[in-house]
Design a protein that fits this description.
GNAT_dom, 5 helices, 34% strand, transferase, N-acetyltransferase domain-containing protein, 162 residues, 7 strands
Length: 162
C-alpha cells in the first residue's frame, strides 16, 4: 500500500522520457491491448511511446514516490489526454491524488469542463473515473495519434465540470 503523504508531483523533464515511455507502454498494453483494433495495436510498440513522450514532454506532470515514477498525466487543451498509474500503486489512493492534480492543472488553465477518452470495455478505468466525479457523456470516434497516420477509434467520452 502506497503512503499517499509521500507522493510528489512535478513537471516532466527531458531526462524522464525513457521512464515515462516505459510506464505509458506498460499501462497502455494493460488497459487497451485486449480492446484495440489490430491497426492500432500495430502502431503501439515501445518506440512509438518514446516518440510521443518526446513530442509532448513539456506537457507531462509526473507523480513520484521516493523519487520513482509511479504515474503521470498529460493534458492537451480541455482534455486529460493521458492518465496512467503503475499497476503496483493501484488501490493505494495515488490515482485519486494524480487525478486531483490533473483537474487542478486544468482549472488553473481556465477550463470549466474537461473531458477524457476511456477505452470502450475498460470497466475498471470507467469505474475509477466515475468514483472521481466524472460522468459518462456518450460514445465518440476520435483520431488516435500514431507514428504514421491517425487511426479512428470509438471511445467512451467522460466529462467533469470543475
Amino acid at each position: 500500500m502506497q503512503d499517499t503523504d509521500t507522493l510528489t508531483m512535478r513537471p516532466a523533464q527531458p531526462d524522464d522520457i525513457a521512464a515515462i515511455a516505459g510506464l505509458w507502454h506498460a499501462g497502455w498494453m494493460d488497459g487497451h491491448a485486449a480492446r484495440a483494433p489490430a491497426a492500432l495495436m500495430a502502431q503501439r510498440d515501445p518506440e512509438s511511446f518514446r516518440i510521443r513522450t518526446e513530442r509532448w514532454i513539456a506537457d507531462f506532470r509526473l507523480m513520484e514516490s521516493d523519487g520513482q515514477l509511479i504515474g503521470f498525466h498529460l493534458c492537451k487543451g480541455d482534455e486529460v489526454n493521458q492518465f496512467y498509474l503503475d499497476a503496483a500503486a493501484r488501490g493505494s489512493g495515488a490515482a485519486m491524488r494524480l487525478m486531483q492534480d490533473a483537474e487542478d492543472h486544468q482549472r488553473a488553465r481556465g477550463h470549466g469542463t474537461i473531458w477524457l477518452a476511456c477505452a470502450i470495455g475498460n470497466d475498471r478505468a470507467r469505474r475509477f473515473y466515475e468514483k472521481a466525479g466524472w460522468r459518462y457523456a456518450g460514445e465518440e470516434t476520435h483520431e488516435m495519434e500514431t507514428a504514421t497516420a491517425p487511426i479512428p477509434l470509438t471511445i467512451w467520452r467522460m466529462e467533469k465540470t470543475l
